[in-house]
Task: inverse folding
């Protein structure tokens, strides 16, 4: 099993551009999450999904959108990139909720907005 | 929002030394988790704690769920160079099954 796969690994965007960060998991997990990690700030939850067709906002959702059309995929969309969105983005999945099942993280996408 | 205070922010130690780090909160948590992140990778779960007072080991790592449910501790014994990384605590409150609160991390450097 590949686990959680994120693409791309790195990306540089200009202000105002849009892009989609891809995330796929092959563990048949119901729960999927997007986090951003800023230096010295830990991980902040952007959006999460408890199953196909269901998504909800996390702690820092502004400027992002998600969709969950299949169990496997959970893409994160940035519509109008801003410098404040420069960060490392991690996708994660779990079999049950985060407090019950361990999170499986991807290796991250490093995004720079200039 | 909820905050976890993780300390120390960073540690620079000699190989073979023991390491202690902790997380505290003003809120009660039902679950405490400890993750390790190596450079260029996502965090990996080390230990999960589900009951106040629980003490759990994973090899040279030992973690405890504080009796007040507002804190947790992680100890690493006889550190080795591959222990290098960022260690995160995370807590989950009752009724928020989808949301973990993460500490800001402890950066551990081990000098061979």
Result:
């Amino acid at each position: 099993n590949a686990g959680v796969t994120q693409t791309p690994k790195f990306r540089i965007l200009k202000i105002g551009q849009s892009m989609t960060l891809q995330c796929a998991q092959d563990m048949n997990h119901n729960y999927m999450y997007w986090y951003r990690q800023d230096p010295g700030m830990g991980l902040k939850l952007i959006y999460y999904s408890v199953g196909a067709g269901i998504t909800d906002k996390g702690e820092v959702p502004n400027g992002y959108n998600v969709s969950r059309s299949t169990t496997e995929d959970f893409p994160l969309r940035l519509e109008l990139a801003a410098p404040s969105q420069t960060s490392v983005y991690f996708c994660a999945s779990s079999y049950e909720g985060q407090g019950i099942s361990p999170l499986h993280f991807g290796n991250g996408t490093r995004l720079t907005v200039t | 929002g909820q905050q976890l205070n993780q300390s120390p922010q960073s540690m620079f130690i000699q190989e073979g030394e023991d390491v202690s780090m902790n997380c505290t909160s003003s809120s009660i948590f039902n679950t405490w988790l400890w993750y390790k992140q190596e450079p260029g990778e996502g965090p990996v779960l080390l230990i999960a704690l589900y009951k106040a007072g629980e003490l759990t080991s994973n090899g040279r790592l030992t973690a405890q769920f504080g009796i007040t449910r507002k804190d947790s501790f992680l100890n690493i014994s006889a550190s080795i160079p591959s222990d290098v990384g960022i260690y995160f605590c995370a807590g989950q409150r009752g009724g928020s099954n989808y949301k973990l609160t993460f500490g800001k991390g402890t950066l551990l450097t081990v000098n061979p």
In short: Residues 84 and 113 of chain A are 8 Å apart (CA to CA).
